[in-house]
Amino acid sequence: MNDSTTAPAALDPQLVTRLRGISTATITTILFKKGLRNCWLRGAMPLASGQGRQVGRAFTMRFVPAREDLSSPAAWSSPRSTRIAVEEMPAGSVVVVDAMGVTDAGILGDILCARMRYRGVAALVTDGVVRDIAGVQSTGLPVWARGVAAPAAVNSLTFVGWQDPIACGGVAVFPGDIMVADGDGVVLIPDAYLPEVLAYGDGQEALEAWILQEVKAGAPLTGMYPPSQENLDRYERARDSHKS
Question: Where are the beta strands (DSSP E) in 86-220?
């Protein structure tokens, strides 16, 4: 477990607002053009509609396969428990949990999710599943996961720590990495690439909205997606006209 005092500073609220305006689909395209292909977390999908786009720095948690001498109800009261980890979560963070893709035991339930929500956690993301789904959804905590399962985590998993590098959905996630989650799943943005995402993201979203409008009006894809210089010029004129 890393010393929480060394964790990266929370994202500036203005950055959060800007990133909430950029879809994960657009972000993955930008990162792909920069050579990053493995940044989308496999299996972590929204458990409910209307969760919006959530943004924050990663607070990591890690499970390993269950070991009978460690995976028991007594583990819930140990110094290395999920309960203690929840109390370390900073407001605005996106909790990212490595559950090794296990789908037959819920890593967290309604009570812990309620506490996370109270502490201001932005979202829970995992390549595993949660339990007590009705209660979890009643907390209002946005969740991205593979689904739900009734058994508790100790049936199949052992919790080993928090704020260490993890693997979640086949992606290496370090504490403090920037996470964006929406209807298409969850994507990781390394800090070094944040300026690129911000520089191209806003413009790409606006351009693709215009392209979609043109396609719906009957425009053929050739020369439109991707846009030719002629169509880019048309887009610029339409944008300038709208501004004026």
Answer: 94-98, 123-126, 129-130, 143-145, 147-148, 157-162, 166-168, 171-173, 178-182, 185-189
